[in-house]
Amino acid sequence: MIKITFPDGNIKEFENGVSVEMIAGSISPGLKKQSVAGYINGELYDLNRPIEIDGDIEIITKKHKDAFSILNHSTAHLMAQAVKRLFPDATFGVGPDIAEGFYYDVNTNGEPIREEDLKRIEKEMTRLVGAALPMERKELPKDKALESFKGDKYKTELINDLPDGEIISFYTQGEFTDLCRGGHIGNTKHIRFFKLLSIAGAYWRGDVNNEQLQRIYGTSWYTKEDLANHLKILEERKLYDHRKVGKELRLFEIVPDAGQGLPLLLPKGYVIRRELENYVYELERKAGYLHVSTPMLGTKWLYETSGHWANYRDNMFPSMERDGEEFVLRPMSCPHHMLVYKTDLRSYRDLPIRYAEVVTQHRYEASGALTGLERVRAMTLTDAHLFVRPDQIKDEVKAAYNLIYQAIDDLGLEIEYVELALRDSKKGKFHDDDKLWDTAEEMMREILNEMNVEFVEMKGEAAFYGPKIDIQVKTMMGHTITMSTVQLDFLLPIRFDLNYIAEGGHKERPVVIHRGLISTWERLMSILVEQYRGAFPSWLAPVQAIVIPVSNEVHLEYSNKIFEELFDLGVRIELDKREEKLGYKIREAQTQKVPYQLVVGDNEVQKDLVTYRKYGSNEQVTVAFSDFKSMILDEIKNRRK
Ligand code: TSB
Ligand code: ZN
To answer: For a substitution probing ligand 1, which of 333, 485, 511, 529 has the most ligand atoms within 8 Å of its CB?
Structure first.
């Protein structure tokens, strides 16, 4: 007999070799039906795996946060089995579950799988589901494992990477066996609502020097409704992808002639960027920041001194030489701001000093990672470096965080979660003063706790110069990306020998806080385009209002008056006096998502009125022109959402 302890502290005895499924069934048939796996002492157990030790149990039901990944991981195996049946020479790389489903990397060792084949594979999967094959776990020592996968290059490599002496687990369903840590759903019959989505290329182990495999993506759910919902979201995403909307609204283009990851901002896109810049400038001015401007080309010395050249060079474009001097395109502005600080003698009374700049910088990002405006190689960051005394660190980090919070809220965005990025002392890319790291990391933890901010710690994600608080948002496309950042740095002040005169007249070192307010214009724009689905609030909209006369002969003069008056007041307004049908002009204004459409007919002309329709509403509202004027001016000036 073994003793099983339940989460409420209850202890029950079971036969040795009992399974999670049987334990669930002993509680209630309903629980048995809902359960998909379990944790025994924290280790994932399949439903049918025999339990042979005493332990704490946590039953994973379909609603548990890990249930989705178990189902999707199992579906990846199911797909591989189906692929193997249809492409008997196929070998397989890795096949994990991911945030919204799963993928499996396949080499057919013959004709590649085409988009049209996905249907066939799905059908085969359905057949395997019908066969109700148990997914059974088996364990082998490493040498036996290698033997049973002899000739399979990828699995052999994966097994070889596991530590010697390790017991390796396998899962078998029908004729198909796969190397796998588990856990699984127990039987193929539980996999019912899935869809294969796409095929992409992926290098074996992510290395461009290796052969390319085919990566098949899919998604799998516990109910028909959940699957249908998810597929609907995927369809909608295609419509709101910023790359598509950005093109339709003529905001930006990425053309091969300009270079990968080097977008061209078109006039309408630039309007948005300038509005955002005005907003940021004002916000920072009120928060006590001073604005500076420094060049995007700098001496290599700057980056050798800072440590970027040693620790960040992979992300930099190569240096160039002129007249015996070496230059680099800057990937960050920190060194320049250190120099700005050094242009004067500083006293403890001058601190904190907060230098802000919208910094154009270049980073070498792998071409496979480039994504529209979301991840680019030329970017302009809403950057700042704060020079503070040690006793000011906490207040300044908190204030920087709060300013970020405000900006994110003003722009209608939402924080998904906050990450505290720490170093991993085993990795070489971090500077190596343990004491500085420990102090900085502990301080950041304290600050977040004092602010009652929930956060997750991420080892190995810090900047080479210090820990970061990274503020993550989720894009409409479902990726999580870093929007804002506050970073604590004791290193660069040493490297650049920064000082201030302390109260007693001696020299002290300031501390630097790096702060990215709302990311780069590029990334921010990608998020906003998707968030607003191209329909920007009027303060950001490239065209804020459009006047459409019903008839050019009768209504043009009054239309022109409205246009000129608002134009002179700074409203981005257009007058559509083309000889086109009224319906056509209205539809076009709609597709351009112009916030205010003003249609001018007899009634408007005679009584000095405007009739407007706000984008997204079907209602037509008629008001005195003067009232409309104050309304739209107020809305723009106060950046109403
Ligand atoms: C905040 N030196 C600091 C600065 O002072 C710094 O550069 N930090 S950073 O490396 O984390 O980058 C700041 C922000 O730039 C990130 O939080 C992210 O929002 C944005 N960013 C980084 N790489 C890219 C990229 N390739 N494309 C678009 N935006 C990017
Ligand atoms: Zn910086």
So the answer is: 485
Q: 334 CA distance to ligand 2 centroid (A)? A: 4
Q: Which ligand is nearest to the CA of 380?
A: 1
How many whole angstroms separate alpha carbon 499 and alpha carbon 491?
Answer: 13
Contact indicator for 309, 327 with CB cutoff of 8 Å: no
Long-range CB pairs of 366-370, under 8 A, 24+ apart, other chains included: 367/260, 367/261, 370/260, 370/261
- Closest ligand to the CA of 383: 1
Q: For residue 316, how far is its CA from the centre of ligand 1 (angstroms)?
A: 13
Pairing of strands 55-61, 2-5: parallel
Strand partners, 359: 381
| Residue 432 pLDDT greater than 80, yes or no | no
Contact 509, 515 (CB under 8 A): no
Contacts 24+ apart (CB under 8 A), 247-255: 248/534, 248/591, 249/529, 249/534, 249/542, 249/592, 249/593, 251/525, 251/529, 251/542, 252/373, 252/525, 254/372
Span 70-107, pLDDT tens digits:
999 999 999 999 999 999 999 999 999 998 999 999 99
Element (H, E) at 598: strand 596-600
Place of tokens 């013959």: 110
* Whole-number percent of the chain with pLDDT over 70: 100
Pocket test for ligand 1, best of 381, 419, 471, 522 (most atoms within 8 A of CB): 381
- Ligand 2 midpoint to CA 519 (Å): 12
- pLDDT in the model for residue 209: 83
Residue nearest to atom 18 of ligand 1 (CA): 519
Average pLDDT over residues 530-547: 95
What are the pocket residues of ligand 1 if the criterion is a CB atom closer than 6 Å to any ligand atom?
332, 334, 363, 365, 375-376, 379, 381, 383, 385, 482-483, 485, 514-516, 519-520, 522-523
pLDDT in tens, 348-369: 999 999 999 999 999 999 887 8
**What's the pTM?**
0.81
